[in-house]
Design brief:
2 domains; 25% strand; binds magnesium ion; Ribosomal Protein S5, domain 2; seven-stranded mixed beta sheet; binds 2-acetamido-2-deoxy-1-O-phosphono-alpha-D-galactopyranose; 9 helices; binds adenosine-5'-diphosphate; alpha+beta; Alpha-Beta Plaits
Length: 342
């Protein structure tokens, strides 16, 4: 298998059915019919290499199980009807050929429009099909696990399939990396690349210009644990991210890159946890978000218990059991984007 392959269409297996059944119920309730197909694209955790992809340097992410899934039917009204399974995200609809992606006031559906626009413009689709859409996300938004790119990638894949078109995974990654910039963030291509190109059980060393990846088997006997600080940062809303892009691009000229990598490794040692992790670090853009810790399998329960106690339940935050389970969880490298039918 290579990244030049297409995203295949699979039948939903038993394990996936309960989640997709729920999405189907939302769709039925909203649109009075079953969806024709589903697309899903995963979030990611980055193991090393933060704020360097947009300067063209390699990164080592892995896809996580948490994803954005979209249920879709085409319509004959030449409109996009976008709804969300979460009541936090309001409905939106627009003609397929008349919309703006408003950088000055970014909303969730603008990320969908980034993916839609990418396919339509790149493949010069003169009469794109209208779509009815329900979005269902399990990645905590604005937490550095790349919910934004999962949404853009999923929307692009859904648009591609709805219009009976084909592009390879790597082409889709290049396209989505470019079109996510329409939301206003000058990011690199890490998130979109891993979202399309990830293989089950593998991290990926990804390089850029052009995007290419090599699968990396992770060490056995160790587990990656994600811990959400529960502090969110919306990268398209503030100027922090783009300011950091400018700073890092300047630093990357000359010998600056060496300094940055040294800083990252040093801060990893500083973050090393007393709860039994080999090491911990912030993942994603930062200003809140998640840490990822490499924990020996034998110490996993102790690690989870200590972090629960010290940060989530009796320590800094006062979360319920359920909230804590959503914020602190072990993860394994998951599969990239997929298309499903019933
Ligand atoms: P990150 O990529 O680190 O999660 P970003 O700030 O880049 O954070 O993107 C977060 C934005 O993505 C949210 O503000 C929202 O607009 C959009 N988003 C993420 N998940 C969903 C979802 N399930 N449904 C709708 N929009 C979502
Ligand atoms: P998050 O934090 O998931 O939005 C962003 C960028 C990545 C990368 C990381 C920092 C986008 C779409 N994502 O991710 O390209 O630069 O920050 O390593 O811009
Ligand atoms: Mg993002």
């Amino acid at each position: 298998m290579t990244d030049q392959e297409f995203v295949s269409v699979k039948t939903l297996d038993e394990k996936l059915k309960p989640r997709y059944h729920k999405i189907c119920q939302h769709f039925l309730k909203r649109f009075n019919a079953e969806p024709e197909f589903y697309a899903r694209a995963p979030g990611r955790v980055n193991i090393i290499g933060e704020h360097i992809d947009y300067s063209g340097y390699g990164v080592l992410p892995m896809a996580i199980e948490q994803d954005v899934a979209i249920a879709v039917s085409t319509n004959s009204s030449n409109t996009l009807q976008l709804a969300n399974s979460s009541s936090s995200f309001c409905e939106f609809s627009c003609p397929v050929d008349e919309y703006t992606i408003d950088k000055s006031n970014p909303k969730w559906f603008h990320y969908v429009l980034c993916g839609f626009r990418g396919i339509v413009e790149h493949l010069k689709v003169t009469t794109p099909r209208g779509m009815k859409v329900i979005v269902d996300g399990t990645i905590p938004p604005s937490s550095g696990l790349s919910s934004s790119s999962a949404l853009v990638c999923c929307a692009a894949l859904a648009t591609l399939h709805a219009n009976n078109l084909k592009m390879s995974k790597v082409e889709l990654a290049e396209l989505c990396a470019h079109y996510e910039k329409y939301i206003g963030t000058e990011g690199g291509g890490m998130d979109q690349s891993i979202s399309f190109m990830a293989k089950q059980g593998m991290a990926k060393f990804i390089e850029f210009n052009p995007i290419r990846g090599v699968d990396v088997k992770l060490p056995e006997g160790a587990v990656f644990v994600i811990a959400n600080s529960c502090v969110t940062a919306s990268k398209a809303v503030t100027s922090h991210f783009n300011t950091r892009v400018v700073e890092c691009r300047l630093a990357a000229q000359g010998t600056g890159m060496v300094v940055w990598v040294t800083m990252e490794i040093t801060s990893e040692s500083a973050c090393k946890m007393e709860a039994g992790a080999h090491g911990s670090r912030l993942t994603g853009a930062g200003w809140g978000g998640c840490t990822v810790s490499l924990v020996p399998a034998a110490s996993l329960q102790n690690f989870l218990q200590e972090v629960r106690k010290r940060y989530y339940m009796d320590g800094v935050l006062e979360l319920t059991e359920e909230e804590c389970t959503r914020a602190l969880f072990p993860t394994a490298p998951g599969v990239g984007a997929q298309l499903y039918v019933h």
